Amino acid sequence: MFSKSCEYGLRAIIYIAQQTKQDVKVSLTTISEAIDSPQAFTAKILQQLTRNNIVTSIKGPYGGFVIEIDKMKTITLSHVVKILDGDNIYTGCGLGLAQCNENSPCPLHFKFITIREQLRNMLENTSLEMLVNDMDTQHFCLKR
Q: Which positions make up the signal peptide (predicted)?
């Protein structure tokens, strides 16, 4: 459903948020190992997230990536998905067809509308803070 870069981006922000909550800055190497993503690919994703003010990159020997605690309340999964995948997940065809619309629907078109709205609702109403707080009570593994 999501692109690989979006999957890795979501994993990365969750991991960074977990570490930030413990007052730890994390390096690119640590993040890519924790989320099981190639380092160069992870760097490009983090660059996009930094440019869009989702994560903060601190330079220097004591640097690393963090997410401001106050921002965790307002950053939703939808923000990350839009940055990395655009809004195609909300508007595109469930089968990936270019010509699917109300007038010329694919076989899944009308069933996918409901799923798409549920997905939009979940992404827009799930903040990073909510996820990190939920993880305090359960074990969560970011690797596949």
A: none
10 Å Cβ neighbour count for 24?
12
CA distance 89 to 80: 12
* Residue 125: exposure state from Cβ atoms within 10 A (0-12, 13-18, ≥19): exposed
pLDDT in tens, 74-120: 999 999 999 999 988 888 888 888 888 889 999 988 988 889 899 99
Reading the block at residue 85, the tokens are 């995948």
What does the alpha-carbon distance between residue 100 and residue 77 come to, in Å, rounded to a whole number?
26
Overall number of domains in the chain:
1
Total-model pTM: 0.87
